[in-house]
Amino acid sequence: MRRPVDATEACPISPVVDLVFSRWSTPILWVLKEHGRQRFVQIQRHLPAITSKVLTQRLRQLERDGLITRAYYAEIPPRVEYEISDLGRTLSPVFAALTQWSDTHFANVEAARHAYDATDRPAP
């Protein structure tokens, strides 16, 4: 009898994929990398499909993980700004590689999807 394999054992990059590529993490990191320091509302403008609640949750998680920094300014009214951290910036080559892969291969993925969807397949 085989013992169940932990996801991290099967694929050692699983924790990193979960960390960086969870639903909204990558778009938030991308916005901060491309546009620099941003206030909450500015991030929301760049990502109009994200809800305030989810944006708040993801920003907190990214801050906890050390990928972004949060600066609070005790002014009237208070101001909070988010910025990609030095650790977060180390992901730039990963994003660049994925952008290059997408530019080179995503049309093939779309063609494969179209071909797959066009075939008659029995219902499950």
What features would you describe in this structure?
The protein contains seven helices and three strands; from the N terminus they run αααβααββαα. By secondary structure, it is mainly alpha-helical. The chain has a single domain, classed as Arc Repressor Mutant, subunit A (Orthogonal Bundle). A three-stranded antiparallel beta sheet has the order 1-3-2. Strand 2 and strand 3 form a beta hairpin. The model has no long low-confidence stretch (mean pLDDT 90).
Shape: extended
Question: Which percent range describes the beta-strand content?
Answer: 5-15%
Number of helices: 7
The topology string of helices and strands comes to: HHHEHHEEHH
Number of strands: 3
Order the strands across the largest sheet as they lie in space. Answer: 1-3-2
Gap from first CA to last CA: 29 Å
Radius of gyration from CA coordinates: 19 Å
Characteristics:
3 strands; 124 residues; Arc Repressor Mutant, subunit A; mainly alpha; three-stranded antiparallel β-sheet; 7 helices
Quick structural overview:
With 124 residues, the chain is mainly alpha-helical.
Which helices and strands, and how do they pair?
Elements: H1 7-10, H2 14-20, H3 25-35, E1 38-39, H4 40-46, H5 52-64, E2 68-73, E3 79-84, H6 86-89, H7 92-118
Antiparallel strand pairs: 1-3, 2-3
